Amino acid sequence: MLEEIQNKPITMWRPFSENKFKNTILKYNNSLTPGSDKLSWRYLKVIINDKTCLEHFINITNICIDLGHWLSHFKTSNSIIILKPNKTFYDSLKMFRPIILLNTLGKLIKKVIGKRLQFQSISKNFIYPCQLSGLKQHSITDVGIILVHLIHVGWVKNLLTSTLAFDIVQFFPLLNYCLLSLILEKVGFNSKIPIFF
């Protein structure tokens, strides 16, 4: 298997296209909270229709990948606390919800880069076939359907079914990025990708 991975050709990094940005931004809801830059999705959709602005966004994205650098402006976030709806009293911390606002343009660029990486990962069979969450055309609904199917198969065989769920939110801060870079190189990603990570 290691020989197969090492013999895979390196993927050439193609610059991003206008289409990728326009298709990605269409999926965002105009009523979502503006980011830390106070830019709403509604306004960003108008801005992106200007060819010059869109070219600048594409250039920023391509340069970030070429230099292997994510701008600090995109890393800036603000935390705000909002009231949970339909509560009679707000005298407890549980009645409030903290949310983190990231830079709106940064979110768009991350989404565009993420889609490209997902496509390349799937085309290289880099993602485990049973991976569902976070992939295109795979959702929590699919997981639910599979789980219900497994339970029903178990019932037919007079078996009991149990599930174990765990939260992997803290997985990514603990990720070994040096190892990730080596894996991405061995799989055949363009050398700019490991540097970017």
Structure characterization notes:
The chain is mainly alpha-helical and 197 residues long. The chain has one domain. The chain is built from nine helices and two strands; from the N terminus they run H-H-H-H-H-E-E-H-H-H-H. The protein has helices at residues 2-6, 18-26, 41-48, 51-67, 72-75, 104-123, 140-156, 177-187, 192-196, and strands at 77-83, 96-102. The protein has a two-stranded antiparallel ribbon. The protein is globular and about 65 Å long.
TL;DR of this structure?
The protein is mainly alpha-helical.
Strand numbers in spatial order across the main sheet: 1-2
Number of helical stretches of at least 4 residues: 9
Supply Rg: 21 Å
- Assign an overall shape: globular
Low-confidence stretches: 1-10
Biggest beta-sheet profile = 2 strands, antiparallel
The fraction of residues in strands falls at: 5-15%
Percent helix range: 40-55%
Number of domains as seen in the coordinates:
1
Fill in the keyword field for this structure.
9 helices, 197 residues, 2 strands, disordered N terminus, two-stranded antiparallel sheet, mainly alpha
Write the layout of secondary structure elements.
Blueprint: H1 2-6, H2 18-26, H3 41-48, H4 51-67, H5 72-75, E1 77-83, E2 96-102, H6 104-123, H7 140-156, H8 177-187, H9 192-196
